[in-house]
Write a structure and sequence with these properties.
This protein has twelve helices and ten strands. By secondary structure, it is of the alpha/beta class.
Length: 308
């Protein structure tokens, strides 16, 4: 079977900032710059950005949809989005999935979604029911491929087994929380599963909520910031030691620490593309550099050891 991700640029653009910290005009500029740099895979979710006061979810998809309409470039990019967390479409009941995909298609202004993820599992729901619901979307041509995120390895394996036994569309992509500071449980439980089943891996929190930009070098740097809630999990000596190694390697290449963090991720087994977002075009430069930077074996070994 041919690799469905063989033409994917080794950086996926995250859409979580679109319509939130990036207004429509800025978001379109980021998307334009990403594509101009060779990028072709955009990742979003129907729930982005429902966590913001006054937002209802789907803001990111709407911004991407307006960009696709203005540029007329739908066939030159692949779009990934997700179901189960939108306030109106919570969970993985078949009827909910069917309604949510139609809402996403309308916001995106397209007749198909290239990669559709189960964003979070609904563990009490039979996996056979979920597998059949996603297969129905593929059969209808609304979705081209299926992915999983935040689903336990046993449930993913059961989904794939069910799909194979019943001739259903099986997941081909995995989106895990994985970065230089968070290597587990991905490496011990999810990476072997991805390798066994040939799942393409697209990592989220690739820059550890901004920690791997090198901006935060101590716990005091984080206190009082708008990212304190996300960053507090990384305020330990081991994390800051890994960041020291990261900044040293970055200095040797005259690039930003974020570029090195993405280059390290990009070369992990099974990873098709790390997902990273940019609030503006200036932030995108370091991300694109990470898609092209080649680390030496000694540098990779140093980062491995520092983050183990």
């Amino acid at each position: 079977m041919s690799n469905p991700f063989s033409d994917t640029f080794p950086l996926a653009l995250g859409g979580n900032t679109f319509g939130w910290t990036s207004d429509e005009e800025t978001s379109h500029a980021v998307l334009d710059a990403f594509v101009a740099s060779g990028g072709n895979h955009i990742d979003t979710a129907d729930s982005y950005s429902a966590w913001v006061d006054g937002h209802v979810g789907g803001e990111s998809e709407q911004v991407i949809g307006s960009w696709l309409a203005r540029r007329g470039n739908r066939d030159s990019v692949t779009i990934a989005t997700k179901v189960s967390r939108h306030p109106q479409f919570k969970g993985l009941a078949p009827a909910n999935i069917a309604a949510a995909v139609d809402a996403s298609l309308e916001r995106l202004g397209t007749d198909h979604i290239d990669l559709y993820y189960a964003h979070y599992d609904e563990p009490e729901r039979p996996i056979e029911e979920i597998a059949a619901a996603f297969d129905a979307l593929v059969a209808a041509g609304k979705v081209l491929a299926v992915g999983v995120s935040n689903v336990e390895p046993e449930r993913i394996a059961a989904w794939i087994d069910t799909a194979q036994k019943n001739n259903l569309a099986a997941p081909i992509a995995l989106q895990p929380h994985y970065n230089l500071l968070t290597r587990e449980p991905y490496e011990s439980s999810l990476a072997p599963l991805a390798a066994q089943h040939g799942l393409g891996v697209f990592t989220y929190f690739s820059l550890a909520a901004g920690m791997l930009t090198g901006k935060y070098r101590s716990a005091s740097d984080i206190q009082g910031t708008d990212r304190e809630r996300h960053l507090s999990r990384y305020t330990n000596d081991a994390a800051f030691g890994a960041i020291d190694a990261l900044t040293d390697v970055a200095a040797a290449h005259d690039v930003e620490p974020a570029s090195v963090a993405l280059a390290w991720l990009r070369n992990r087994p099974g990873v098709v593309a790390p997902i990273a977002s940019a609030r503006n075009v200036a932030q995108l430069d370091a991300l694109i550099a990470g898609a092209r930077l080649e680390l030496t074996p000694d540098e990779v070994a140093r980062l491995d050891a520092a983050s183990a």
